Amino acid sequence: MTWCANISVMGFEDMKEAIISAKDLSFRYEGKESYAVDHVNIEIEKGSFVAVLGRNGSGKSTFAKLLNVLIEPTEGEISVCSLQPKTEDDAFAIRQKCGMVFQNPDNQMVATIVEEDVAFGCENLGVAPGEIVRRVDWSLRTVGMEEYRKAAPHMLSGGQKQRIAIAGVIAMLPEVIVFDESTSMLDPSGRQDIFDLAMRLNKENNVTVLWITHFMEEAAKCDRVIVMDQGRVKMDGTAREVFSDPKKIEKFGLEAPDMAKLAEALRKEGLDLKDGIITVDEMEVELCRLLSKI
Amino acid sequence: MLNNISIGQYFPGDSIIHKLDPRTKILFTLMFIVSIFISKGFLCFFLIAAFAYLCMRISKISLKFIVRGLKPILFIVAFTFLLNLFLSSGDDVIVKWGVLSITFTGIRNALFMAVRLILLVTCTQLLTLTTSPIQLTDGLERLFTPFKKIGFPAHELAMMMSIALRFIPTLIEETDKITKAQKARGADFESGGVIKRVKAMIPLLVPLFVGAFRRADELAMAMEARCYRGGTGRTKMRPLTYRKADYCAFGISFMLLLVVIALNILNVF
Amino acid sequence: MPVTIENLAHVYAPGTPFEKRAIEKINLTIKDGEFIGLIGHTGSGKSTLIQHINALMLPTEGKVIVNGIDTSTPKSGLEIRKNVGLVFQYPEYQLFEETIEKDVAFGPKNLGIDEEEIRKRVHHALRLVGIDEQLFHQSPFDLSGGQKRRVAIAGVLAMKPNILILDEPSAGLDPAGRAEMRRLIKDIKNEGTTVIMVSHSMDDVSKMCDRIIVMNKGRIALDGPPCEVFKHTELLESIHLGVPAASMLRERLNKNGFDLPDDIYTIEEIKTAILEKLKRR
Questions:
Q1: Cβ separation of A110 and B165 shorter than 8 Å?
Q2: Which runs of E-coded beta strand occur in chain B?
Q3: Which one of A7, A205, B28, C130 is most buried, counting C-beta atoms within 10 A?
């Protein structure tokens, strides 16, 4: 596992093309002493699905806003899709390449009709009308909401609203989508739906996903997990690496998945379980292996 | 259950009138209103009413909706009627009680004003019943675009209006939630005198305002994240275009105005 | 302070095209000191049910009796709300006063209690939810999200309800916040309050409650202690409610010949059972 923020880049030796790279990226809110994002060095590989974890106030949302140039770095550099936010126009270009889905489904819909809302981003980009219609059709189909195109947002469930928000983002044809706790206000089935949709966009459309979450079960399914605390990257590695030490991640205000805790407890009792068990599936396989040995 | 709030009184349909460009319908309504205001007699009113009725039939809106829409102004109509009935001066007195008198002129004036009001509201209703609020906003934005040169914020106003429309149901729902939450804490919104009731609204209004500002903040950020930077360089998914039907409708409404003017000049009442 | 619900049904907008039967034939008795987890999907009728218990909603059919008072009795609302506290989802959005102390005092004031008693109750409630005394005179709007929520809960606790209903108390919190909320609710329960907690999270419910009521489509689908309810893994999954990880593992292992007792639902229990099985040789 790669450790501290400042050497995290070295951990991935056969790193493919980096779509996001941060060098000493820092941000301090006005009038605050400490950094909300504190000299972060990180590279995100194109096409990967990366979870960002951390307690409230750990700097993960601020990091997300920096990616989308909603705020500008106090120090350091950020580059998204080889673009650096030097001017207003750069910011505009970055926001097209790097879409964002927020937490509260209600507060990110602008229009009174679903299809108008999906078109909003494209209209801002100045896309030609015929092309907007095509993109809106495609986006709504991709998120499975085509039958709601004429519906009013307030008639939809939370999960459906988030799908519309995603449709609005993918209609802008981004290369990266940042989900900033997009499932935290949904019920379990809505949460599952939105996570699966993000996974599908990642696999089928090669969209790079940054998944900021409080839910460990979601992070456990991601390619890479980054743990932030006090504005710094504290852990960075595969889900297996990050979660296999329940004690350590508890220090950062997080909780290991139940199966990781169980594995730890069983090992203490002398069972010879392999390292890095985090899901029920893996636990099942390991225990059946042990049973067959008896 | 507040799920079925509908804003405005839009009655969905696919008639020719529904499909007209909103700008056409706004101008059409304007013609109607001008015609009503310059009319001097009942013949003109009859003509306009017949015309409005025709539009209503074409757009397949039942009279019921129009009548329902008239209800809120019924009081004003009655008030105007009575005011004109008793306070018009004239020599042709029918009945007289002290200062109050009913004259033939009074009756005519009273009827005239009442019909005028009813026609005015009916014609504007035809617009709002056949045009969704969002189309209306769109139409107004485009109509006012030429005035941007003199600094008129057409796009901004339209954006504000559509956001307001979007958030009305959300805020109504929120009001309902907060009301319930405060009731659960023993708040009483229903009893007591005026002052007590106004005071009782504070636990409802403060959270509502705080919430509205929070939403505004988040929405602004979400809009910015989706590349919004004002009206410049923006395109529309469905840009407004005038079609043949629009030119025809515009011609017809202009004719109506001309006929009304002619009738007035010829003094045919 | 028992609650009895008999044949309760609630219909929204009856007689209109929007008519919706939200809950149907609910029969339920809640005894003093119980800690109930109420779980179900959005739209399963759980919010409708809890609002009936504190008379914010009145039955279309059937009866709700709280401490001997029928909630349909005219003017019984305040008397019932004195006994049944209801904390809604995201309660931090109901804060409105200038200071934390005043906000928490709002509920008891409405009950018409004298100043000294109010002060005592407010301080007790705030201390219970872990708000520092130094903060009492600050604006509630300056607090962090988690703190705001705890102040809002204190606002209901200060009314000294015998029954406390919490709707999704840990929604939107981070893991540490969720753990703290669990501790707080346990403390409240330990003071002798009957607690009904509405939750989406099977894990939270399984870790805390001693009775679980599962709702589906406006009816009660399952009702019993966790070890009974979590035996029905298939039913729970068919209505898209997850089961605790330990129950799921138990189910899977048993399919592979582990033969573990079927009332297991906690990590601790399954650990012991697995060890016993594997070490028996």
A1: no
A2: 93-97, 100-103
A3: B28
> How far is C-alpha C87 from the geometric centre of its chain's CA atoms?
9
CA distances to C70, C161, C182 from C126, rounded to whole Å, are 32, 15, 16
Asked whether residue A159 is domain-assigned, the answer is yes
CA B45 to chain CA mean position, Å = 21
Residue A205 sits in the same domain as residue A286: no
Q: In the numeric block, which tokens belong to residue A56?
A: 């409230």
Residue to mutate among A67, A102, A110, with most B CBs inside 10 A, is A110
Number of domains within chain C: 1
The CATH number that applies at residue C219 is 3.40.50.300
In a domain, C276, yes or no: no
Distance of CA C53 to the CA centre of its chain: 12
Task: State the CB neighbour count (10 A cutoff) for residue A85.
Answer: 22
Rg value, chain A, Cα: 20
On whether any CB of chain A is under 8 Å from the CB of B227, the answer is yes
Give the pair of three-digit tokens for residue B79: 């008030």
Residue B215, chain C, CB below 8 Å: the answer is no
Among B215, B226, B229, B241, most A C-beta atoms within 10 A, so best to mutate, is B226
Is B228 in Cβ contact with A124 (below 8 Å)? Answer: yes
A184 touches chain B (CB under 8 A): no
Q: Are residues A289 and A154 in the same domain?
A: no
Q: What is the DSSP letter of C218?
A: T
Euclidean distance between CA atoms A283 and B35, whole angstroms:
81
Q: Tens of pLDDT along C239-272?
A: 888 788 899 999 999 999 888 998 899 999 999 9
List the domain range (segments joined by +) for residue C205: 33-59+78-226
**Which two tokens mark B96?**
């007289």
Q: CA-CA distances (angstroms) from residue A17 to A43, A48, A83, A250, C1?
A: 9, 11, 14, 33, 65
Cβ distance B4 to C85 less than 8 Å, yes or no, reads no
Whether B45 and B127 map to the same domain: the answer is yes
- If asked whether residues B20 and B127 sit together in one domain, one would say yes
B75 and B161 belong to one structural domain: no
CA distance C202 to A189: 13
Residues A143 and A188 in one domain: yes
Q: Identify whether residues B125 and B20 lie together within a single domain.
A: yes
Please report whether residue B138 resides in a domain: no
Give the count of beta carbons closer than 10 Å to the beta carbon of residue B200: 17
**Cβ of A70 and B225 within 8 Å?**
yes
What is the radius of gyration, based on Cα positions, of chain B?
24
Per-residue pLDDT of chain A (294 residues; tens, 9 = 90+): 333 333 344 444 445 689 999 999 999 998 888 999 999 999 999 999 999 999 998 999 999 999 999 999 999 999 999 999 988 899 999 999 999 999 999 999 999 899 999 999 999 999 999 999 999 999 999 999 999 999 989 889 999 999 999 999 999 999 999 999 999 999 888 999 999 999 999 999 999 999 999 999 899 999 999 999 999 999 999 998 999 888 899 999 998 888 999 999 999 998 888 888 888 999 999 999 988 887
**Residues in B touching A128 (Cβ below 8 Å):** 235
Instruction: Give how many domains chain B has, as a whole number.
Output: 2
Question: Look-up: residue for tokens 């011609």?
Answer: B251
Asked, for residue C264, whether it belongs to a domain, the answer is: no
- Domain boundaries, position A34: 5-244
| Same-domain check for residues A56 and A146 | yes
Q: What is the tally of structural domains in chain A?
A: 2
Q: Which of residues 121-140 of A touch B (CB under 8 A)?
A: 121-129, 132-133, 136
pTM of the model as a whole: 0.88
* Measured distance between the N- and C-terminal CA atoms of chain B, rounded to whole angstroms: 52
Q: Determine the Cα–Cα distance for residues B134 and B140; give it in Å rounded to an integer.
A: 10
Same domain, A95 and A197: yes
Cβ A97 vs Cβ A175: under 8 Å: yes
Q: Which helix (H) or strand (E) holds C25?
A: strand C20-30
